[in-house]
Amino acid sequence: MTNALEIKGLSKEYKLGKGKSFFALKEIDLSLEKGKVLGLIGHNGAGKSTLLKILSRITYPSSGEIDVYGKLSSLLEVGTGFHPELSGRENIYLNGSILGMTKSEIKERFADIVAFAGVEEFLDLPVKRYSSGMYVRLAFAVAAHLDAEVLLIDEVLAVGDAEFQKRCLQRMDSLSKEKERSIVFVSHNMSAIVKLCDEVAWLEKGQIIARGAPQEIIDQYLAKTAELNRDIPVHLRDDREGDGRAKIVDISIAKNKIGQFFTSGSRLNLAVKFELSNAKAQNFKLELHLFNSRGNYLSTFSHSAHLSGLKHESWLCEVKDLNLMPGDFFFNAHLYLDGQRADFVGRAFYFKVIDEKSEDNEIAISRQNPGIYLLNTWTTLKP
Amino acid sequence: MLYNFAYRDYRARYAQTLLGYGWAIIQPIMAAAVLFFLFHNLLKVETQGVAFLSFTFSGLLFWNYFAFVLSQSSASLISAQSMLQKIYFPRIILPLSKGLLGLVELSITLVIFLFIAFADAQVESLGLLSFIPLIISVLAAAWGLGLWLSALSIRYRDLQQALPFLLQMLFFISPIAYSPALVQERLPESMQALYYLNPISGILELFRAALFNLEYHPQAWLSILVAFLLFISGWWYFHRVERKIADLI
After folding, report:
1. Distance from C-alpha of A286 to C-alpha of A284, rounded to nearest angstrom
2. What is this model's ipTM?
3. Domain A233-357, classified CATH 2.70.50.60, yes or no
């Protein structure tokens, strides 16, 4: 059992002027075993990205010690270092070299990178002509073939389609299991963390407040998060992501109900309102991702349309038959303008489903992982 | 990696342009034409007895490279902000790569210069060899100042405003389209050395002396010393602030 990474007493202090200062990280102690994947979770501003930046030598700690055994590479943002005017082929070489690969290493892995990204036909096209999906795939593909002993990955799975996300996870998994690469992985995607990580550290206000088995830490984290965000209305939330061209200002239950309780099988009418900045855009796409209290993804309600040109857009989403088992649920709200993410609010809206049959309630509560009822009928089969 | 960064800029610079390399040809020729009209026809300045076009173009050859490398390297950190905050690589590569990038236009200008010089003036072919150590000295000066300015402009963005103005001043006080004697005659003996604190002055004088077989001021060598001092101090300062770049930019 050897360590790939050791961090002792690491602090990062930012001077704010007038003798005030702020600790982005405070006395962090962490170690990562060779071939293991460590997940970092925590709310925005907790210090996850600062920690990765320090480990990648982009910024330097105020005090503390870091030992890295072997080569370290990082992918903190997909596609930085890509030049829009250059072709896919040129960008692979360029980006590979900036990320620390030698020319012969890149040559050797070139075919793999291209195949992984699935951009064979577009290799000689400038990447500014790529669709955003292709761009992201190519960028991740280069990073995924870095072959460093320690790999740092920050929230790259927030982009790309589901199929590609799955391949990224598989790639990271095989890197750690087969090639004994060690990975530090930051994500807000809890199911990805559970699937991939051997251990999870929870960072809050620059300190590690819990560390241990993924599911256990994530449960604690989600419980805390639910508590924190539950009562803040959407328009007051400031932990948003996206480029800010539009803002989701209201998600509420329309028409039929008061309060946020539903009985299983009832109707759910959600009114969603968003506000546009002055940026020009033609189309929007709203996505509401449904999760249960455990943070497991269940379904997506999405809608795209042309923008009306008004400052505000309001839409009604109707779910006729809310076939959910009793429990707590929430939506993550995503808003895209012309295919680029403009706004994202995690846990934007909570609701509770109860069942008239109390024994079903008890089962659901004891499992704390409510799912969906699917219509099913049973008949005897003749022997 | 230095080469890769330069190649990236090089491709971006000529992507989707109508004239491409044409710009590298047109710019110095137009500049020489304007200077010819102003300094030769109107002001009738003295050029050490060398044909005006050859004289001036030898100046532009060095000046254009100097100005290009200096302005590009000074802005190199600020224009790569997002990269500096997301990727680790030795930061010094950014300003240094601009020296490599400038070679593209330098070689085009050099070819034009050779055509003009051989057609227009008495040239010592062996003197051409001095081009190599002297252009390296100019590069050292441009890199040195570029390292200083790029590192300083992380904190003080006004330097980016001041730079075009500084370059313009420097252009006029450097003996590019006129003989250095014009200035030196008016300086007292004790101040002569000061003139060579501007690295361009001495380096140009030495190049012209070798190429056109001219006399040169014994203190012209001072410029080369200044150039390398700038480079060494710039390198030192850049490394001193390197760690803070991502936090401050």
Report:
1. 7
2. 0.78
3. yes
